[in-house]
Design a protein that fits this description.
The complex is a heterodimer. By secondary structure, chain A is mostly beta strands. In chain A, the strands form 2 sheets. In chain A, strands 2, 4, 5, 9, 10 and 11 form a 6-stranded mixed sheet that branches. Chain A has no helices and 11 strands. In chain A, 0% of the residues lie in helices and 56% in strands. In chain B, the strands form 2 sheets. In chain B, strands 2, 4, 5, 6, 9, 10 and 11 form a 7-stranded mixed sheet that branches. Chain B is mostly beta strands. Classes of the chains: A mainly beta, B mainly beta. At the A-B interface, strand 4, strand 5, strand 9 and strand 10 of A face strand 10 of B.
Amino acid sequence: AQSVTQLGSHVSVSEGALVLLRCNYSSSVPPYLFWYVQYPNQGLQLLLKYTTGATLVKGINGFEAEFKKSETSFHLTKPSAHMSDAAEYFCAVSESQAGTALIFGKGTTLSVSS
Amino acid sequence: ETGVTQTPRHLVMGMTNKKSLKCEQHLGHNAMYWYKQSAKKPLELMFVYNFKEQTENNSVPSRFSPECPNSSHLFLHLHTLQPEDSALYLCASSRLKGDTQYFGPGTRLTVL
């Protein structure tokens, strides 16, 4: 069965600092991996996704994530945080071959201070 | 993102009321989903429809009744809800089941 673990329910960084949000997954078949962002009172917006091919994936708003099969990880990073990055971030996995629906992690709330 | 719309955005209802949530997608997708998002809990997948057929029901109580009349519309009929059902209900769609999902803004439901 698939599962997603996001380490740290809350991450705080200063503006301009590196953002690192951790995600580990389990999947019995090659996974599709996703990061979504949710701003207050809004739905989820896709940041980036990994399906096949290049393991370093670039997304919107300067975010990127690297798929590391050996570590079963898909951590999200951004070199320099902006105040506007404050939101909740969700990692999700889908078993590509099975075409299953997404399984989400519990989410990580990112706070950015000036 | 206006590809997936949800109405109403906010709903307050009593435990004996009957109401419906509506979701519409304008993306030409074939799969649609209902999720429940409660405070301090992961997103819970409730139902999945693929080509108008329900393919997943994750042990959702019968007081929640989904309906998918066509690939563009998805409803969630609510009846005799409990206060613990108060949550943000999110609709999503994807081209095929398992593909990238696009979410609506959600309906904030409060059950009194």
